[in-house]
Specification:
The chain is mainly beta and 252 residues long. The chain has two domains: 9-151, Sandwich (Immunoglobulin-like); 159-246, Immunoglobulins (Immunoglobulin-like). The protein is built from one helix and 19 strands. Strands 1, 14, 15, 16, 18 and 19 form a six-stranded mixed beta sheet that branches. Strands 2, 4, 6, 8, 10 and 11 form a six-stranded mixed beta sheet that branches. A hairpin with a 2-residue loop joins strand 12 and strand 13 (174-179).
């Protein structure tokens, strides 16, 4: 199967690694801290929600957590969001868990659609023993960014129906995908099949009442009938499969 984009893991929580110390040898590193979800929904009638952070490694780790409104370069000192997150810094012993508490502070947010934010969890491992003598050690900090949706009360429809109800249509630039719902939708996997040829396209997220365009010129299928197979991510991080079809364009 032909692939349009190699990024098949776009659904996973965004993970960034920062080198905290330079070294002459690159050593393998894995994150020890894991969360109990890849996305979290804050419903307007809730006083708070929780995020469970667990240390599955063999050494203690220091964690720092904050929420941003979509700017990945924002720091805990510069973010301005209508949420409190506690504790912002914690030491997590090996094999132990920590509960992060997220509380909405009441500032005005749209009431006719979801708002999206990001929960950041930065893991800083302890300094290796004898690091001064072992000149070839690398110490890494891992940063996770997890989606946080603020969901007002009384929105029409459901998140599940929003994913199934995406509208697919041809445009001059390719295929336009419209989300006419009040919910955010994340398309995890997307395959376009036309004339017996299948193409894996780039995963994408689409905001409420927004559209996303998939270019088609490079695939030489602009006039053929197209079968669309895609999966979306539900509130619990699970994948839900869907299908759509675009008829062929008749004429010269």
């Amino acid at each position: 199967m032909k692939k349009l984009c190699p990024n098949r893991g776009a659904w996973r929580p965004r993970l960034m690694a920062f080198a905290l110390a330079s070294a002459t040898l690159a050593m393998p590193a894995t994150a020890s801290v894991v969360m109990n979800g890849t996305r979290f929904v804050y419903r307007a009638n809730e006083k708070e929600i929780t995020v469970k952070v667990s240390n599955v490694g063999k050494l203690p780790a220091l964690t720092q957590a904050w929420i941003d409104n979509g700017d990945p370069t924002a720091t805990p000192e510069t973010v301005d969001v209508p949420f409190n997150l506690t504790p912002p810094i914690a030491r997590l012993e090996a094999g132990k868990s920590q509960t992060l508490r997220v509380a909405y502070t009441g500032e005005a947010l749209p009431t006719d659609r979801e708002s999206q934010f990001w929960i950041n969890v930065l893991e800083v491992p302890p300094k290796p023993e004898h690091a001064e003598e072992d000149g070839g050690q690398v110490q890494l900090a891992f940063r996770y960014r997890l989606k946080l949706f603020y969901r007002p009360n009384g929105l029409p429809g459901t998140a599940e129906a929003a994913a199934a109800g995406l509208s697919w249509r041809r445009t001059a630039g390719g295929i336009a995908v419209s989300n006419d719902s009040a919910f955010h939708v994340t398309v995890n996997e997307l395959t376009l099949t036309a004339g017996g040829s299948a193409v894996d396209a780039e995963p994408f997220a689409i905001a409420p009442h927004a559209a996303h365009v998939l270019p088609l010129a490079a695939h030489d299928v602009a006039r053929k009938g197209i079968d669309v197979a895609f999966s979306t991510i539900n509130d619990y991080g699970g994948f839900v499969t869907h299908k759509a079809a675009l008829p062929a364009i008749e004429g010269p």
